Amino acid sequence: MVVSVTQHGDIAVVTICNPPVNATSQAVRQGLAEALDATERDPEVKAVVLACAGRTFIAGADITEFGKPAVAPNLPDLLTRIEAASKPWVAALHGTVLGGGLETALVCSHRIAAAATRLGLPEVTLGLIPGAGGTVRLPRLIPPERALEMIGTGKPVSAFEAKKIGLIDAIAEADVLEAALDLARHAAGVTKPDPLIKRAPQTSENEYEFDRVAAKIVARARGQIAPHQAVQSVRLALSIPADQALAAERAAFVTLQSDPQSRALRYLFFAERAATKNARTKGIATRGITHVAVIGGGTMGAGIAASCLLAGYGVTMIERDHLAAKSGAARVVNILKGSLSRSVISPERYDQLQDLFAVATSYADLAAADLVIEAVYEDLAVKLDVLRRLETHARPDAILASNTSYLDVNQIARAIDGSDRVIGLHFFAPAHIMKLLEIVVPDAVSDEALATGVQFARSLGKIPVLAGVCDGFIANRMMSAYRREADHMLEDGALPWEIDKAMVGFGLPVGVFQMQDLAGLDISWSMRKRLAATRDPAQRYVAIGDMLCEQGRFGRKTGRGYYLYDDQGEAQPDPEVEAMILAESRRKGIRRRAFAADAIMARIIGAMQSEGAAILSEGVAASPQDIDVVMANAFGFPRWRGGPMYMAVASE
Ligand code: 3HC
């Protein structure tokens, strides 16, 4: 039974059981409608508790039903009926109360949550707005600007925050169902509060706050339409009668559902989940990991260590001497302090995490580690040396991972006997924040080591994408391809600031030249010098980056690179760079032509798509979806466009 009703004295408990996340699929809606009828009919029932079996309360409408013909009962109508019930309904919340789940809780007369519950309206992340009354009821329960923040950003709030803003009535001290039953018994004896739909909107905390939140949401939307609609719908819900606002919200929801942006975002939602379930590791038993050792306490090593700590692992960080160990430890503690100040962790948790963390200068301290991640300098000889030392000091069954972004992980694995336990774990900086983790698959790796790597990534809250061994794996290989194309366009007629503007206008967070200026041009220059002898002379080579470095223009850190940086650090187009580019085109006999933003992006996306096709044909990525997941999560490719591989199909 998807929805069942059980009697507890004069309280009926309506329980939804629709794994994995109790989404309000048609069967759930039907079951709830029948449960409502039954409890309304039954004179013995004085109040109702609505609860969910399994890991969570309703986590939203069933996304798999979107884009298909609607089957009655629809959620908004059902919720209107529950809200009008003659008996009080108490929502017993746990897990992730999201989207249609929170909208269901809003039509109940009381809400009580387990302490670890998270509540939110994440529809905007799917290119939607709430479609079952969220924009209308939420600002009638909590201050409108807080409602707008939740709806416009899609970010969930903790139970603690929910209680503070009035979204829930109480946090259960122990079992949430028992606490909900108590609340229901109490509610049965008093007058049912007015449903939200009958109430006036809440008043704002201050008169400017709503506009400030709205402006922030609009500024961050960057091409995505749903956040704009969210602002518009909440504004409307504050100014017109609730029943009209409900109808307007539904109309906007239906329009957005068939918009290409929502289709792309839904595609990415499922692509990210599919990435974690690759065929190679499916059904393979994983090794238990409780203790992780991280070699190297630089920015990357510290980020990885913090990420592991925040996921509850014991962590030992190894550095070469006491001074380096001290700085590495300070970096980790700084990250944890940041998490504390952003309320990601409580003060008690912060103290516990300190106890889980140790630094050492001897490889002998690795003995307890189930997994060792080396995050030392990106140099093959250095990494090979570390691997050999790990072979001596780490447990013989410990999984050994190399955090490299370009190097040959096969070669690294071959440094030791028993290379079946060596994997690549390519983290992205900052490692404690970035969601993507490329799991690089060396030829000799065992299925067990690989499956454990995937499981480990998931436990860190990351999206693991398997990548074959090649120069740059999926992410950096894609980036090299579009950077190369941008270089070609410099010679063909576009200027750095024109290309960057087109990229930002497209929705990318930063243009390719500003990004290089930020990273520093000297690092890639020395790499190019190293590779110069082996470069294919037939390959088109753009020397503009080298010429900038020859003039000491290493990017932002030297105040000059592709751009000139003013006193405020703002990037300004530089006539000298323009003259250099024009001269280079002339020297090569290239007739420059103007590029409109569309033409620039067509070439950049085209380069991504052809590199993606090569990556697929070589088996470096398992699917086009994996490439799109990498692009969205490594480089901020605008999620609402799906990804370059998706765009190729969507435009057919
Ligand atoms: N509909 C259908 N399937 C869903 C779903 C949903 N709303 N939410 C999750 N699932 C599925 C996933 O696809 C996955 O399926 P799979 O095992 O076959 O791959 C499974 O449930 C488990 O999901 P996760 O792997 O993501 O599990 P996590 O534990 O990591 O995360 C979660 C759980 C936080 C609930 C996360 O799945 C999530 O954020 N879900 C989406 C929530 C959401 O966006 N809700 C709003 C929907 S739109 C809406 O409600 C419209 C309304 O206003 C009318």
Structural descriptors:
single chain; 652 residues; alpha/beta; 2-enoyl-CoA Hydratase, Chain A, domain 1; Rossmann fold; N-(1-d-carboxylethyl)-l-norvaline Dehydrogenase, domain 2; 8-stranded mixed β-sheet; 12% strand; globular; binds 3-hydroxybutanoyl-coenzyme A
Walkthrough of the structure:
There is one protein chain. The chain is an alpha/beta fold and 652 residues long. The protein has 3 domains: 3-258, 2-enoyl-CoA Hydratase, Chain A, domain 1, CATH 3.90.226; 291-467, Rossmann fold (3-Layer(aba) Sandwich), CATH 3.40.50; 475-619, N-(1-d-carboxylethyl)-l-norvaline Dehydrogenase, domain 2 (Orthogonal Bundle). It is built from 26 helices and 19 strands. The strands form 4 sheets. Strands 12-11-10-13-14-15-16-17 form an 8-stranded mixed β-sheet, with helices on both faces. The protein has a 6-stranded mixed β-sheet with strand order 1-2-3-4-6-9, with helices on both faces. The chain has a 3-stranded mixed β-sheet with strand order 5-7-8. Strand 16, helix 17 and strand 17 (463-468) form a beta-alpha-beta unit. Helix 8 (209-221) packs antiparallel against helix 9 and helix 12 packs across helix 13. The radius of gyration is 28 Å and the shape is globular. The model has no long low-confidence stretch (mean pLDDT 95). The structure holds 3-hydroxybutanoyl-coenzyme A. 3-hydroxybutanoyl-coenzyme A (3HC) is lined by residues 20-21, 23, 59-64, 75, 96, 98-100, 103, 122-123, 126, 130-132, 134, 273.
